[in-house]
Amino acid sequence: MKKSNTGSTNLFLLFRFRRFRGAKVVFFLFVRAKSWFFLGLSKFILHSHKQYADTSGDWRLILVDRNHYIPKDYQMNLTRLSNGKQVDSRIYSSLQKMFNDARASGLALFVREGYRTFQDQQQIMNERIREYENQGNSKRRATKMAEKYVAIPGTSEHQLGLSVDINADQTKCSSEKVYSWLDNNAYKYGFIKRYPSSKSYITGINNEPWHYRYVGKEAATTIKNQNLCLEEYLKKYK
User: Fold this and answer.
1) Active-site hit among 113, 131, 157, 208
2) pLDDT in tens, 60-114
3) Considering the chain, what percentage of its residues have pLDDT values greater than 90?
4) Does this model's pTM top 0.90?
5) SS3 for 86?
6) Angle at Cα 64 formed by Cα 59 and Cα 65, nearest 5°?
């Protein structure tokens, strides 16, 4: 009767499998380490070579977004509003006239947000990230979700002092009425709805019917009439 070699064969195969599995683990760790290295290197390069907004031209048309950071030495004079919020002094008279006319039309509105510091913007971003993390999202996913609604610190127009978030006093009128009036009239005073829903694929920010940016009457009129966002306007006319 022929003796079976099954036992020794199984031991040999197990040894080969363990060696192979060990090699796979080593290879996997090598590949991961390599990817981590290049990911870290790419982040370092991007961080070290930020593209800053061009502030040498018309101050009303400075483009600030996730690809154009506010220069660290950018300065402006601020005017404080009656509710304590601040804006660039150069837009104050236009903002005040717009509010006067809106109120004369029966609307009750106020500036909820004006100028923000870098630290203010960072706090808002951190709070939104925590909100999404508390919903069960990972830190990485929560950050990506937050960046759809909150500008990355250093890239917020609020840090320019040229943008305002306008809300309704809902004890007196609805938000819809205020947003509708602004959408139809803000351009007459030099303001544009900066983040319309139809342009989020360009701006990178989801619809914000309360966020208005000062660009001057001429640019605002063109942007309104041609249904452009600021990025499109600058590409077409500047």
Assistant:
1) 208
2) 999 999 899 999 999 999 999 999 999 999 999 999 999 999 999 999 999 999 9
3) 75
4) no
5) strand
6) 165
CA distances (Å), origin 14, targets 25, 27, 182: 16, 20, 73
Q: Give one word for 2, left, alpha or beta, with left for phi > 0 and alpha for psi -120 to 50.
A: beta
Distance of CA 76 to the CA centre of its chain: 22
**Paired residues of 87 in beta bridges:** 79
How far apart are the C-alpha atoms of 59 and 128, rounded to whole Å? 30
* SS3 state of residue 111: strand
Its sign, for the CA torsion 158, 164, 170, 175, is negative
CA 165 to CA 213: how far, in whole Å?
Answer: 9
Do residues 158 and 166 lie in contact, with contact meaning Cβ atoms separated by under 8 Å? no
Per-residue H/E/C for 38-88: HHHHHHHHHHHCCCECCCCCCHHHCCCECCEECCCCCCCCEEECCCCCEEE
Is residue 212 helix, strand or coil?
strand
Alpha-carbon distance 222 to 233, whole Å?
A: 8
DSSP reduced 3-state for 115? coil
Task: Judge whether 157 counts as a catalytic residue.
Answer: no
Q: How far apart are CA 207 and CA 204, in angstroms?
A: 10
Looking at residue 17, its pLDDT comes to 43
Can you tell me which residue has the tokens 């966020």?
211
DSSP state of 147: T
Reported as a single tens digit per residue, the pLDDT across 189-226 is: 999 999 999 999 999 888 999 999 999 999 999 999 99
Which tokens is 75 given? 């300065």
